[in-house]
Amino acid sequence: MKLTLRIWRQHGSSGRLVEYVMDDLSPDMSFLEALDVLNEKLILAGEEPVAFDHDCREGICGMCGVMINGVAHGPQKATTACQLHLRHFKDGDVLTVEPWRADPFPVVRDLVVDRSAFDRIIAAGGYVSVPTGSAPDAHALPVPKPDADTAFEAAACIGCGACVAACPNGSAMLFTAAKATHLGVLPQGQPERYQRARNMVAEHDALGFGGCTNTGECTSVCPKGIPLTTIARLNADLLKAHTTRSDR
Amino acid sequence: MDTIRLYRSTIGKKAVMAVTGAVMFLYVVVHMLGNLSIFAGPGALDAYGKFLRDINVVWPTRFGLLIAVVLHFIAAYQLTAKARKARGRYEHRRPVQGSYAARTMRWGGVVIGLFVVYHLLDLTAGVLNPHGVHGEIHANVVADFQHWYVVLAYAVAVVALGFHIRHGVWSATRTLGVVTSQTIGLAVAVVICAGFLSVPFAVFTGLVS
């Protein structure tokens, strides 16, 4: 099948869209495989290949992700770019491919952005401080099934950054809320629950992400379907942290 | 309670918007119910206005609302500025998929703000009212809505308010940590719109004179 890819090429501080016509693609290829084919051609022609992030290509690592015609990870719902197959496009389609764009996600090169900001949010509180040692007995700490389900749903976040890329406010609140929820509803996460909410949100804001306005763009492109309700839960924790808790 | 530190966070600013929004929303509900007294017969609206002045709630309410409006606007301005700086600029961007109400919160708020200025000059100060006599509320209202352009201006503003409330009620409750359904926001917005629009349309069509 034939596709015309208009790809953002950037080396240095400015970039532009460059058009590549691909007419020997298979509909069974993934979107990243189409980029691989393009890069092989570019290398053979002595040109610079298109830089893009990828790792597992199984939809579970969170490394890949580009805007395809203005939609994070492309048109297929709950799917990462690596799991998006060309059969979901029409023969002859013209696709604009751009990197995630947000102030705290500077473009490194072409389609690669620096998502260290997410690591900083995690470092601010997205963990549970525990004494290490031998593994605890299974079921030593009972977890109610609904809590386990909520935690697991939030823990499915792979930190790809699609939520930020799609947000009209450049907010990373869905990511932050997913991480805070995944720990905050489990018994292991209780001691640091409110401190975590306060520190992660403070870091989120300090990094230059915008505030959430509940437009729901994030959850509609999230490859893992993290629900918007996680943000309401984080809001509740943050307000409680600042209004009633003394452990600040 | 560390209010300053809370306000520094985006969620703190949103909480301020939610609480001040709730205050203004409660006022809007009471205002709408008060307006409906025009259907209780001639003199009922004027009597309701006199009752409000007699129990001395007018100025405290105005003062409270002014504080709510100012805080709501400042927080909105600061959050908008932060979002503008944070958001990415794409060559190709899909229109926002969220509701029309969610997309138009900021400019919708500006429209409502400008309308409130006109509304105060019209029916509070009386300056822009064709009748414009203090205390003769019924006569002022009837004089207003004889004109199609006044009815239109009010209708546009009320619909803008409806959209603002539709997303606002839903979003504000979530900001305060309570998950509600979008249906509640929509239902509340429809009731508010219907209540406010009934008066101008009743006057314009001659049901109330």
Task: Name the descriptors.
heterodimer, A: 248 residues, alpha+beta, 5-stranded mixed β-sheet, two-stranded antiparallel ribbon, 8 helices, 12% strand, B: 209 residues, mainly alpha, 9 helices
The number of helical elements of chain B comes to 9
**Terminus-to-terminus distance of chain A:** 59 Å
Report the average pLDDT across residues of chain B. 95
Percentage of residues in DSSP E strands of chain B = under 5%
Biggest sheet statistics of chain A: 5 strands, mixed
Q: In order across it, which strands form the biggest sheet of chain A?
A: 2-1-5-3-4
**Spatial separation of the terminal alpha carbons of chain B:** 54 Å
DSSP strand count of chain A:
7
Helix vs. strand class of chain B: mainly alpha
What would the principal axes of the Cα set say about the shape of chain B?
globular
The number of distinct helices of chain A, counting runs of at least 4 residues, comes to 8
Assembly type: heterodimer
What is the residue-mean pLDDT of chain A, rounded to a whole number? Answer: 95
Share of helix of chain B, binned: over 70%
- Summarize the helix and strand pattern of chain B as letters: HHHHHHHHH
Largest interface: A-B, 53 and 43 residues
Radius of gyration of chain B: 19 Å
Q: Write down the overall geometry of chain A.
A: elongated
Low-confidence stretches of chain B: none
Rounded to the nearest angstrom, the radius of gyration of chain A is 20 Å
Question: What's the layout of helices and strands?
Answer:
The complex is a heterodimer of chains A (248) and B (209).
Chain A: E1 3-10, E2 15-22, H1 31-44, E3 67-68, E4 71-72, E5 94-98, E6 107-109, E7 112-113, H2 116-123, H3 145-155, H4 162-166, H5 173-184, H6 193-206, H7 217-221, H8 229-243
Parallel strand pairs in A: 1-5
Antiparallel strand pairs in A: 1-2, 3-4, 3-5, 6-7
Helix pairs in contact in A: 2-6, 3-5, 5-6, 5-8, 6-8
Chain B: H1 3-8, H2 10-35, H3 44-54, H4 58-86, H5 100-103, H6 105-124, H7 137-144, H8 148-175, H9 182-204
Helix pairs in contact in B: 2-4, 2-8, 2-9, 6-8, 8-9
